[in-house]
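Appendix B. Raw example, untouched.
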Amino acid sequence: MTLAAIDAADRVQQLIALTEQLTGRLAEEAALFEARRPQDAAAGLEETGRLANLYRHESMRVKANPDLVAGAPKALRLQLVEVTRAFETMLERHSHALAAAKAITEGLVQTVAREVASARAAGTGYGPGARATVGDSRAVALNKQA
């Protein structure tokens, strides 16, 4: 998956468009995470992933061979720098929103798991043979990594 540019100016214009499109996707997702609606962001994750992979690939190509963009007009290269800064700012916001959504989701799952476990951890009876139940994992499996 690569950009098909005819010259340096075309490549820079395509990189600007790609960066703006990816920044827009991240802004939409961050807004959904901040609104506590991460399930609504799921529909666009495949497209965001595709754009992110293309961006990563093209960034690596330009880093490895700066001549790919060196011949572009200075104004276009400066515009690319500006949209890249905006992208990095949005990436930071997206990262914080995603971390918050993850923490909230994990907290909810852990709370539910504790409630289920405490409801099942009742003793098995009274008398000399009575024992406390060690635990029951039939209904809830808790993985501490998301």
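End of appendix B.
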